[in-house]
Amino acid sequence: MARLAAGWRSVDSALMERMAQLEPQDFALRSDSHMPVWAILAHLAGARIYWLCGILEQPGVESTPFDGSGEGWEDHLDMPHSKEDVIGALESTWGVVETWLNGWTATRLEEEFQRTGLDGVTRRQNHHTVLVRLLTHEGYHAGELSLILMMHGKDGIDPWRRLQMEPVATSTPRTS
């Protein structure tokens, strides 16, 4: 589990570094069919709190700008948030993720809970499903952000670059 957590930390760091490099006006960039950058990032941060604090009842919601209900900044596109607001939301919600990851035990993946969905159906889930959901959710939106940035002539996000293994030293064949 420690390796998985380290990988997620690495991907989050790449996202944060790229967002810090953007100009404040870049947070308003969008494609025709997507929310602006600020709203996508707010959605990403809010999903962390919804699942970890709202559903799994993990501590830390009070240290973030969200309440865990699922109502997010992206639900109010007429009220844009600044680069500072969004980066602050990402940093504070990462603190909640970090606490959750630090609390992992070998049995946690299978720990079950029940949740009633928006359709009114109560389902049994486990921490594994939340972990996979959050990881893939963040990867999906990192790709979406990259596309928007590249559409506007900017570099995308390469969160996986840090996960590559070191190159293997090759030896030159001996000649006799």
What do you see in this structure?
It is a single chain. The chain is mainly alpha-helical. 48% of the residues lie in helices and 6% in strands. It contains 4 helices and 2 strands, in the order H-H-H-E-E-H. A hairpin with a 5-residue loop joins strand 1 and strand 2 (122-126). It starts with a helix and ends in a 25-residue tail after the last helix. The model has no long low-confidence stretch (mean pLDDT 88).
Summarize the structure.
The chain has 176 residues and is mostly helical. It is 48% helix and 6% strand.
Distance between the termini: 49 Å
Strand content: 5-15%
Order of helices and strands: HHHEEH
Number of helices: 4
**Major sheet strand order:** 1-2
Mean pLDDT value? 88
Write the layout of secondary structure elements.
Blueprint: H1 2-21, H2 37-55, H3 83-102, E1 112-116, E2 122-126, H4 127-151
Antiparallel strand pairs: 1-2
Keywords:
176 residues, 2 strands, two-stranded antiparallel ribbon, 48% helix, mainly alpha, single chain
